[in-house]
Amino acid sequence: MQSRWWSCGIRLVTWTWVWSLALLGVWCIPANEVNLLDSRSVMGDLGWVAYPKNGWEEIGEVDENYAPIHTYQVCRVMEQNQNNWLHTNWILTEGAQRVFIELKFTLRDCNSLPGGVGTCKETFNMAMKESRYIKIDTIAADESFTELDLGDRVMKLNTEVRDLGPLTRKGFYLAFQDLGACIALVSVRVFYKRCPFLVKSLAEFPDTIPGSEASQLVEVVGRCVNNSLPLYEPPRMHCSTEGEWLVPIGKCVCQPGFEEINGSCQAPSPVSVVRKGHTGKSSIALSWAEPDRPNGIILEYEIKYFEKEQDSSYTIIKSKDTEMVVEGLKPSSAYIFQVRARTSAGYGAFSRRFEFQTSPYCESSIVAVAITLALVLLAVVAGFLLSGRRCGYSKAKQDPEEEKMHFHNGHIKFPGVRTYIDPLTYEDPNQAVHEFAQEIDVSYISIERIIGAGEFGEVCSGPLRLPGKREIQVAIKTLKAGYTEQQRRDFLWEASIMGQFNHPNIIRLEGVVTKSKPVMIITEYMENGSLDTFLKKNDGQFTVIQLVGMLRGIASGMRYLSDMGYVHRDLAARNILVNSNLVCKVSDFGLSRVLEDDPEAAYTTRGGKIPIRWTAPEAIAYRKFTSASDVWSYGIVMWEVMSYGERPYWEMSNQDVIKAVEESYRLPGPMDCPEALYHLMMDCWQRERSNRPKFDEIVCLLDKFIRNPSSLKKLVNSSHRVSNLLVEHASVEGNCSTRSQTVGEWLDSIKMGRYTELFMEGGYSSLETVAQMTSEDLRRVGVNLAGHQKKIITSIQEMRVHMNSTNSTVNI
Question: Membrane spanning segments where (predicted)?
Answer without folding.
Answer: 366-387
